[in-house]
Amino acid sequence: MIALQTATVLAAVFLSTANSAATPTASYLPQTSPTYLPSFPAQTGVITSWPPADPSAPLPSGPLSTATLTLSGYPTMNVPVANASVDPNIIPIMNLIDWTHVPDAPVTTNTTIVPAGDPYCWWTQGGCVTPKISYIPPDIYICPVPDTWGLTYDDGPMYYYPVTPENSVWAEPNLYDFLLAHNNQKANLFYIGSKIMGAPIAAQRGLNDGHTICVHTWSHPLMTTLTNAEVVAEFYYGLRMIKEVLGITPKCWRPPYGDVDDRVRAIAWQMGLRTIIWDQDTNDWQIVGDQVAPTSSSISYATANNTVEGWIANHVKGNDTQHGHITLEHELSNATITLAEFWLPTIQKLYQTMPATACNNIAQPYWEESFVYPIQGDQAVSTNGTAVGGSTSSNGTTTPKIVSSAATKSTQVMGSVMTLVVAAIMASLL
């Protein structure tokens, strides 16, 4: 099981601008579909498009298949790739990258101090999300439209080894079934390559249920502490595992602990990936749970719960109108699953709730063009999480339409609805 490394310095991000949805333009270094990944045969029972071939077919639910997959050619699970600089899979990629467009930022350590002016846009030390180099786009870190909640879960797919009757109830498909049962809610799932290796069938369920899959590296390290070759290896083996098991090649990734700088961003961009951060952290990953051991930075479940309660209360009061939010949550332990499932129904009532990619109008988050997901402006959910309206595409499928109702909802919230919502939230916490 993944042992979370403790980041000694994690900066809180207090950001007020709404530039996360910047669309790549001709001024950015061009990206192409990764040619460095092997071709794999399609896995049985895994969708190859979205909407799926039969949109009327019910989405999978309930216990996972007991099928097994044979996966080989990968590094040791859950640890950074050893000897990456001489790895025969990594050397060709190193030769493909234009290193003149990768800043010579230093490899960081626990004692690294950010230089004056933060020349390499190191998120961990200063919360920087706008690169100091002009040829890659800003990080995605918010939902630009107010009253929107970008739903994301890191560190999946969640599983246990060994499995016991006590812990198995929290493993996937627990969260995926919960999302399906609550208005077929979609989310971004940031998968760790090593975790997919341990639970490939759970990962396939995540894709088949219509969630948007992004890369969360191979082994979940602090990325700025790695050499260039090690950074490439984390991306390569994470991407390769996703492609072999799911048949997709994501364009999105999230750095573990948010630890990223312009060196890592530039490598990611040239490997076909754009960086997604967050502007709200539940800190659920610090809750001591059945797979999270106590550390000096551990928090109680009540502390994380109070964090989310504070966001909700601020929103209900009408003090949260500048932009929407991308929120960091995890499918990591019994505690993180409990927190996520407790708050989702309330979030769905108060926000337009969707994947972070959708709220940033990214309809095609994979290099495979057969996957086209609904986006904000033509997708999604009303305030209670159900689809509203719709338009018909040329192939006859209906795309649910989202109602951008920030002004309307703000008026409602400030009126009698606010009283009802506050009462409901408080009652649920008693």
Automatic annotation (TrEMBL):
GO molecular function: chitin deacetylase activity
Domain NodB homology: 147-354
Keyword entries, A-Z: Signal
GO cellular component: membrane
Gene3D superfamilies named in the record: Glycoside hydrolase/deacetylase (3.20.20.370)
Residues annotated as signal peptide: 1-22
GO BP, sorted A to Z: carbohydrate metabolic process; fungal-type cell wall biogenesis
Protein name: NodB homology domain-containing protein
